[in-house]
Specification:
By secondary structure, this protein is mainly α. It contains 4 helices and no strands. It has one domain (2-82): Non-ribosomal Peptide Synthetase Peptidyl Carrier Protein, Chain A.
């Protein structure tokens, strides 16, 4: 759960969410699309760079990226399993 809160703070501090409030988002919240955080493909590139900088994680395979960025829970689990920092 701590990683989800870290990710929410990382997203809020670095990506323009158009004033969206992340407090209501949880592990099952989609990251992309209108029902989720509303991020788009450019935001995905920025997220990948942020994950690399903060956690030392590299995501090179786009298919893998789609699975990792499904929702906050899958992203947090991936970060926990692969963080180097």
């Amino acid at each position: 759960m701590q990683t989800i809160e870290e990710l929410k703070q990382l997203i809020a501090a670095n990506i323009d969410l158009g004033g969206a409030d992340l407090s209501g988002f949880d592990a099952a919240s989609p990251i992309f699309g209108e029902k989720g955080l509303g991020l788009d493909s450019l935001d995905a590139v920025e997220m990948i760079m942020l994950l690399q900088k903060k956690y030392g994680i590299t995501i090179e395979n786009m298919q893998q990226g789609r699975e990792i960025f499904k929702d906050l829970g899958t992203l947090a689990a991936y970060v926990d399993a692969n963080r180097k920092k």
